Amino acid sequence: MGVIKRGVSEIIPEDDLVRKIEKSLKTKTPLNVKLGCDPSRPDLHLGHSVVLRKLRQFQDLGHRAILIVGDFTGMIGDPSGRNKTRPALSLEETRKNGESYFEQATKILSKEKTKMVYNSEWLAKMQFADVIKLASKYTVARMLERDDFTLRYKAGEPISVHEFLYPLAQAMDSVAINADVELGGTDQKFNLLVGRDIQREFGKEPQVILTMPILVGTDGVEKMSKSLDNYIGLSDSPKEMYGRTLSIPDSLIYDYFLLTTNIEKKDLEEIKQQLERNSVNPRDIKRGLARELVAMYHSHDEAVAAEEEFDRVFVKKDMPDVIPIFYPTADDLKNVTSLTAATGSVSSKTEARKKILEGGVYIDGERITDPFSPVPNKDEFILKVGRRKFHRIIRKNQ
Known about the structure:
This protein is of the alpha/beta class and 398 residues long. It is built from 17 helices and 11 strands. The protein folds into 3 domains: 2-212, Rossmann fold (3-Layer(aba) Sandwich); 238-315, Tyrosyl-Transfer RNA Synthetase (Orthogonal Bundle), CATH 1.10.240; 325-394, Structural Genomics Hypothetical 15.5 Kd Protein In mrcA-pckA Intergenic Region, Chain A (Roll), CATH 3.10.290.
């Protein structure tokens, strides 16, 4: 229980979990520990790792990890935390995303000990009469207890009837696999509670709910998200992972150590005291966090190399050892905005202009502040965008 409770927000109910574990030990039967995968977002980051790491701990304790890819429920779209209807996906899209999710998730989970299933296996077989019967087991009043539904209802935002079916469909996943425990973020609490109720309705022993905190992104404000560009990706290169980790605010250092690393409890307590007493420069502690994360997802040697590279480029202001070469076209060379966007360092010309106006674009070490600045008439030069993106620009021989 000490391992399981680390970093957890809630266990509902904790007594039931203790009883289930005692029974599991006595009968030598592993618990079915369930985690639902959102197939609309196949690119995983450290925010996803928080609950995946908890699932890995259950695996290490001898229990059965079951990843449920919501290929069928993905066609509804999870309304959790939404102020409007989420766009639905096709079955083909959800399947493809599910495969990508599994490959990335097994950077944390034991691939051999993880069972992955698609919920279309049972949900697609339900007849309309089955859906009506399922819907009769939950009231509209209970659904409207959900914060996101309540806010949308009061604001006059439309709520489609099919969105009420999402938590019921997710609950049927728990019925289908006889889930003993279901994991999720705190934003999934309502859906997980519905699972307990529906299991009872089908004569099953209710699952225990275990919720994990939502990891705040590198901006220190919003939930970690690729769309907000405040993420640290599980597939990031060692250099990117190290650099992004150093960009988190000092206030998040302890939470990141607690929720995303395997650091021992005594070492975690020491870090907490160092931060509270200001006895160590937080940047030095953060460097330790960055090394730890790179070593976890890559290797110790790559963590050391990433730190040395970071120091060379950003502390000593040297160039990285390897800089990608970019051969611009005539259109790319219209101005610095066009060139910056063409290298892929930013997502669009609009983003390029914004980055230039913010003072984040350099050519041969000189800051560019005018988005319409002409490109230097040189055969070769270095374009730097932000703190970590470099390109060696080489004009093609005319």
